[in-house]
Design a protein that fits this description.
79% helix; mainly alpha; single chain
Length: 225
């Protein structure tokens, strides 16, 4: 099959792949019947996130850079999480997250300490998008192909999003009276997806605002305090 046919197909099935990865992630912590509801809510969050990402970066040239980074990062996250799950029980990790202070920085520190391979896997997967996209689209214009600075920014936002997603999932799960490892993992995966959405939204906003700022500084007297 030609690469010109593979890329559009990969773009079309990105959402399906993300759903499979999200539910595979939650299956590591599935422990009670109510977790099926957590998986449905995670699926809805992932679907909305994938739709928002597609709206921000329409796949005009097949698989986009954000899609590639998100998919490879999610695969790396799941592989790393599987390693972390063998080192510590998911229920213990979920209880520690639930007992932690409800602020973003504390949750990020806790996640780095308890789930190191998950983070390593996500970052390595995200960085793998750079050689992948450059190899399959060697003539791609710079703004459509991922580069290092963009990759670091997106990976950082996905990392923040994972912790923010856990905080939100803990609040929602505590109100429903059914917190569990599956709800924690679902919030983590959903947060990663929406972290990528936030990164792309800010990236596009920057390129919309930059010409306005440059134009203002070209005007007489601009930039003089």
């Amino acid at each position: 099959m030609k690469m010109s046919a593979v890329l559009p197909a990969a773009s079309r099935y990105t959402t399906v792949a993300l759903l499979v990865l999200a539910w595979s992630c939650q299956s590591l912590g599935y422990s009670q019947p109510v977790d099926a509801l957590h998986m449905l809510s995670t699926g809805a969050a992932v679907l909305l996130g994938a739709a928002a990402l597609g709206w921000l970066r329409p796949p005009r040239v097949g698989l986009t850079a954000p899609q590639a980074m998100l998919l490879l990062g999610a695969i790396g996250m799941l592989l790393g999480l599987t390693v972390d799950a063998h080192a510590a029980e998911m229920r213990l990790l979920a209880s520690l997250c639930g007992a932690a202070d409800r602020n973003l920085w504390t949750m990020m520190q806790l996640h780095w300490a308890l789930l190191p391979w998950m983070h390593v896997g996500m970052w390595v997967g995200g960085f793998a998008a750079i050689p992948l996209l450059r190899s399959i689209r060697p003539t791609c214009r710079r703004q459509y192909c991922v580069h290092l600075a963009q990759n670091v920014a997106c990976s950082a936002w996905m990392t923040v999003g994972m912790s923010a997603g856990v905080l939100l999932s803990e609040v929602l799960a505590s109100r429903s009276g059914a917190p569990s490892p599956a709800s924690m993992l679902g919030g983590m995966f959903s947060g990663m997806v929406w972290g990528m959405v936030a990164s792309v939204a800010l990236y596009r906003l920057y390129f919309r605002v930059r010409p306005m700022i440059a134009l203002n500084f070209k005007e007489p007297g601009a930039g003089v305090l």
